[in-house]
Amino acid sequence: MSSVTFDRIAIIGLGLIGSSIGHAIKRGQLAGHIAGYARTEDTRKTALEIGFVDSVHDTAAEAVEGADLTLVCVPVGICGQVTQELSPSLKPGSIITDVGSVKQAVITAMSPHVPQGVHFIPGHPIAGTEHSGPQSGFATLFDGRWCILTPVAGTDEQALQKLTGFWQACGSMVDTMAPDHHDQVLAITSHLPQLIAYNIVGTVTELEEDTQSEVTKFSASGFRDFTRLAASDPIMWRDICIANRDAILEMLGRFTEDLTSLQRSIRRGDADKLQELFTSTRDMRRKIVEAGQDTPEADFGRHASDDSAKD
Ligand code: NAP
Question: Which domains does the chain have, with CATH numbers?
Answer without folding.
Answer: 6-177 (3.40.50.720), 181-268 (1.10.3660.10)
